[in-house]
Amino acid sequence: MKAYLTLLGRSTWALINSYYAVLEERDYHPDKVMIYAEGSGETQSIVEAIRSISNEYSFHPNIEARVVQEGDFIASGNMISADLKKLKEERYETALDITPGRKPLVAGAILSASKQNIDHIYYLMIDSTEDADKPYLLIPRKRQTLTDFAEETRRHQQ
């Protein structure tokens, strides 16, 4: 079983595009998707977008959106840490996507992930913000780089 945790900051496109990239480039099809959002305004549309994208790839994850306090990296980190701990106890392979998160939320999530021995930390870099508000498939692939920080770190520690 696989779990995918992602952070919703200011850009819904960043969340949607990084999810597409993980499905396309890493063939990571999660059974569970958890979205941590600073505010609840966009969560329903994001849940529907994740559901629609997943349906395109013929799988149907359980999707949950959780609201975190804006800028409170301690509280959000504690929430993410508790969720990761539970997922690990349930034997999920875990992935955290930090691409769309704002810095305080990313900091809390990374600190939590390091405590829970997370399997993947994904980040989708785009070389310019020029087309950042377009769908993943409409941005040239050569302008986007998906990195797994956890995997890269493990590779360079050996």
Q: Strand percentage, roughly?
A: 15-25%
Adjacency order of strands in the biggest sheet: 3-2-1-4-5-6
The CATH topology is given as Rossmann fold
Low-confidence stretches: none
Q: State the domain count.
A: 1
Distance between the termini: 27 Å
Main β-sheet description: 6 strands, mixed
The appropriate CATH architecture is 3-Layer(aba) Sandwich
Q: Class, according to the CATH hierarchy?
A: Alpha Beta
Quaternary organisation of the protein chains: single chain
Mean pLDDT: 89
Number of distinct beta strands? 6
Tell me the CATH superfamily.
Hypothetical protein VC1899 like domain (Restriction endonuclease-like)
Shape: globular
- Class from helix and strand fractions: alpha/beta
Count of DSSP helices? 5
Gyration radius from CA atoms, angstroms: 15 Å
Q: What are the secondary-structure elements, in order, as H or E?
A: EHEHEHEHEEH
Helical residue percent band: 40-55%
Report what the structure shows.
This protein has one domain (2-157): Rossmann fold (3-Layer(aba) Sandwich), CATH 3.40.50.10770. Helices cover 43% and strands 24% of the residues. It has helices spanning 12-26, 43-56, 73-89, 103-115, 149-157; strands spanning 2-8, 32-38, 62-68, 93-97, 120-126, 144-148. Strands 3-2-1-4-5-6 form a six-stranded mixed β-sheet, with helices on both faces. Helix 1 links the parallel strand 1 (2-8) and strand 2 (32-38). 35% of the residues are buried. The model has no long low-confidence stretch (mean pLDDT 89).
